[in-house]
Amino acid sequence: MKLCIALDNPSRDENLKLAISLKEYANDLWLKVGFRSFIRDGNEFIKELKNLGYNIFLDLKLYDIPNTMADAAEEIAKLNIDMFNVHASAGSKALKEVMDRLSKFKKRPLVLAVTALTSFSNEEFEKIYGSDIKTKAKEFAKEAFTAGLDGVVCSVWESIDIKNATSQEFLTLTPGIRPFGEDAGDQKRVADIKAAKENKANFIVVGRPIYKASNPIKVVEKILKEIK
Ligand code: C5P
């Protein structure tokens, strides 16, 4: 299981400071660059993080018509990042077109499909998708697997089910992690490290419990020790 830290700090300097302070663990860590950071700091910032030795997950959750998604995927692949994601609800055709477009790259980033955001309660999810999270997340995962993606973003609580419905090798990346029972904030379907391990998550995403901690390095060290 790998730890992926969400760089959701309000400023580039704070994100960079955190990345530099954890540099000695760069080989073991993934950094998640999301909307806030990418919109503000762009590709130059990603290059800086790559130079520190980190693996980069670009969390832009693409959702558009198939051709536009494939165009975006092609541009992302040129950024030399290691993983990015799309929304599974964009549909099979879009997922396939993304993977087709990436096939021309000798080395392409891993591609994950978002199933159900971890901030959704079952009730909220059902209102939008017309089905419960468990059923729909599995359905989305099967479509992503068939389209040739590498895995999905889901909560810890769907991870095993999804692997059983696709392949044990199909990756699950699970946000909503509160490593040692910290405050959930806006997340609804949270889990701790022990549960993530038991449910075979390949990546855990941790944001606020790390970057808002008074000593983020200590928290990261504690998590790394726990997931070894
Ligand atoms: O601070 P926290 O640990 O809740 O951060 C979780 C991160 O994971 C955020 O950057 C959020 O955008 C992202 N994420 C999520 N649920 C998803 C996909 C991504 O929480 N399904």
Word description of this protein:
This protein has helices at residues 12-21, 35-51, 66-77, 92-102, 122-129, 133-146, 156-165, 193-198, 208-211, 216-227, and strands spanning 2-6, 29-33, 55-62, 83-87, 110-114, 151-153, 171-174, 203-206. The protein is α/β, with parallel strands linked by helices and 228 residues long. It has an 8-stranded parallel barrel with strand order 1-2-3-4-5-6-7-8, surrounded by 5 helices. Helix 8 links the parallel strand 7 and strand 8. Helix 1 (12-21) packs parallel to helix 2, helix 3 (66-77) packs parallel to helix 4 (92-102) and helix 6 (133-146) packs across helix 7 (156-165). The longest helix has 17 residues, at 35-51. It is globular. The protein binds cytidine-5'-monophosphate. Residues 6, 8, 34, 59, 114, 117-118, 153, 175-176, 185, 187, 205-208 line the site of cytidine-5'-monophosphate.
Strand order of the largest sheet: 1-2-3-4-5-6-7-8
Task: Please give the alpha-carbon distance between the first and last residues.
Answer: 8 Å
* Strand count: 8
Instruction: Give, in order, the helices and strands.
Output: EHEHEHEHEHHEHEHEHH
Bound molecules: cytidine-5'-monophosphate
Kindly estimate the percentage of residues that lie in beta strands according to DSSP. Answer: 15-25%
Query: Helix count, per DSSP?
Result: 10
How does the major sheet shape up? 8 strands, parallel, barrel
Proportion in helices? 40-55%
On the 0 to 100 scale, the average pLDDT is 97
